[in-house]
Design goal:
It is a single chain. About 35% of the residues lie in helices and about 20% in strands. It contains 8 helices and 11 strands. Helix 4 packs across helix 7. The N and C termini lie far apart (about 40 Å).
Length: about 220
């Protein structure tokens, strides 16, 4: 069974259990999970985690590894396990792991989940990871083999941001109803659904008008 290296900078916030669900649902690939750090409130779900940096690695060592894509103790593990593909979650993490993919000439696939595709360049620039993404965005656009968009709207935002149409593929995230607890209550009768999410700055939208779209416009990240 082929192996895929899965990268998330911080593994794993409780708000990102969908990434753990993705890893657990793999059937045709064996996951090799990589991260820079274990974040507080992490959700590992029994996954073996491989940290990019050795214990005690200082700031300059981390910066050097990020720039060159050379991670001393991880290179041997990747070679011995023959991972043939890197899958990064969020565009910023795609840029973060790009030097490693370039140095090892590994195919790279990135999933754009939401805010990473919709915020402006100015908002990206407020964070170190966003600045890194903006700097490497032209290289990422050329090198990446494919970008998974979780909705048509995310795809449209990336098209407007200049990403090549041929590299964008929509694979919608969904919820398996069978995995949810069943509730038998008359209060659920006629319940309406609301949409909530991130766009530009923090935004939440609720729409109960049939046939009406309440999605915010894409924020151009040029």
């Amino acid at each position: 069974m082929p192996m895929v290296a899965i990268y998330r900078r911080g593994f794993l916030p409780l708000s990102e259990t969908f990434i753990a669900d993705h890893i657990r649902s793999l059937r045709r690939y064996r996951p090799f999970v990589m991260a820079d750090d274990i974040v507080g409130g992490h959700y590992r779900d029994g996954q073996q985690l491989h940290l990019l940096h050795e214990p005690g690695a200082g700031k300059w060592k981390r910066i050097s590894s990020r720039l060159t894509g050379h991670y001393d103790h991880l290179d041997g593990q990747l070679s011995s396990r023959s991972a043939g593909l890197i899958h990064a979650h969020f565009l910023q993490d795609g840029a973060g792991i790009l030097p490693l993919a370039l140095r090892r000439r590994m195919p790279l696939v990135v999933t754009a989940h939401g805010y990473d595709a919709t915020v402006t360049a100015r908002e990206h620039a407020r964070r170190t990871e966003g600045l890194w993404y903006l700097m490497l965005k032209p290289v990422l656009m050329r090198y990446v083999d494919g970008i998974i968009c979780v909705s048509n709207w995310i795809r449209q935002c990336l098209l407007e941001a200049g990403y090549p149409e041929g590299k964008l593929r929509v694979i919608r995230l969904g919820i398996d109803p069978a995995a949810l607890p069943q509730v038998d209550s008359p209060r659920c009768a006629g319940a309406r659904c609301s949409w909530a999410g991130w766009s530009r700055r923090r935004a939440s939208t609720s729409c109960s008008t049939p046939g009406r779209s309440c999605r915010p416009a894409c924020a151009r990240s040029r």
